[in-house]
Write a structure and sequence with these properties.
By secondary structure, the chain is an alpha+beta fold. It has helices at 7-16, 20-34, 58-66, 74-80, 96-107, 137-165, 179-189, 194-201, 205-219, 224-233, and strands at 38-44, 50-54, 86-87, 113-120, 126-133. Strand 1 (38-44) and strand 2 form a beta hairpin. Helix 7 (179-189) crosses helix 9 and helix 7 (179-189) packs across helix 10 (224-233). This is HTH-type quorum sensing-dependent transcriptional regulator VjbR.
């Protein structure tokens, strides 16, 4: 990769964009400027709906939703747990579903390297801006070292513009959590295992599971990690 990046020009294009199609064109320009194969913006809203645009193949985007890969994707799961950018190599790919997902993604030319920036907006919004590429580790390390700050800034500019275009797509009003649901999510967020949470609250693990599933439903979360992240971002739990 030998990118010639004019960040100011890209940010000016983002400020001037007036349509979603214009944002798609800018994402394509990002790939050309940074010398990467793909760039993608992905927002999973509280109803589990996907809002996205970028350069992945339509076939892969459709397959991702058909297979409900959002539930096993280590990038999504890892970014829910973090506030800083994530190099895909630092994520946990050890489970069989994660390995199968990785192979399927590579078969669809997503790339063997990736860098994803978690973005948290108003009312618990969670989105990702990702760039990916096929290259060796040393080349990718050099790329991240040179361009991580620019990519972070660009991701947040992009999200701000998306929010301008989609004012009605916000997470909406969240149902209040019960005291027990708050206790359960708080302890999980602190790193307790489910067994430890159940013991601390003097309840069975089955009852704990009921509280967690109820909290997930109220928060519109796709999994427990997502529920904890949303509860934290909304100020419903504090650790």
């Amino acid at each position: 990769m030998a990118p010639k990046v004019n960040l100011d020009f890209i940010l000016e294009m983002l400020d001037a964009a007036s349509t979603v199609d214009g944002l798609r064109e800018i994402v394509e320009r990002v790939c050309e400027s940074f010398g990467v194969d793909h760039a993608m913006y992905h927002w999973v809203d509280s109803a589990g709906d996907h809002y996205y645009f970028g350069t992945y193949k339509d076939e892969w985007v459709a397959r991702y939703q058909e297979k409900s890969y959002v539930r096993v994707d280590p990038v999504i799961i890892g970014c829910y747990q973090r506030f800083h950018p994530v190099d895909w190599r630092r994520l946990d790919w050890s489970s069989k579903p994660a390995r199968e997902f990785m192979q399927d993604a590579r078969d669809h030319d997503v790339g063997n390297q990736g860098y994803s920036i978690p973005i948290r907006g108003p009312k618990g919004q969670f989105a990702l801006f990702t760039v990916s590429n096929n290259c060796d580790d040393a080349t990718w390390d050099n790329f991240i070292e040179r361009h991580s700050r620019d990519l972070i800034l660009m991701g947040h500019y992009l999200n701000r513009k998306v929010l301008e275009f989609e004012p009605d797509r916000g997470p909406g009003q969240v149902q209040p959590l019960s005291p027990r649901e708050i206790d359960a999510l708080t302890l999980l967020a602190m790193g307790y295992s489910r067994a430890q949470v159940a013991q601390t609250l003097s309840i069975s693990e089955h009852t704990l599971r009921v509280y967690i599933e109820s909290a997930r439903f109220k928060l519109g979360a796709i999994n427990t990690t997502h529920a904890i992240a949303r509860a934290l971002s909304l100020g419903l739990i504090i650790i």
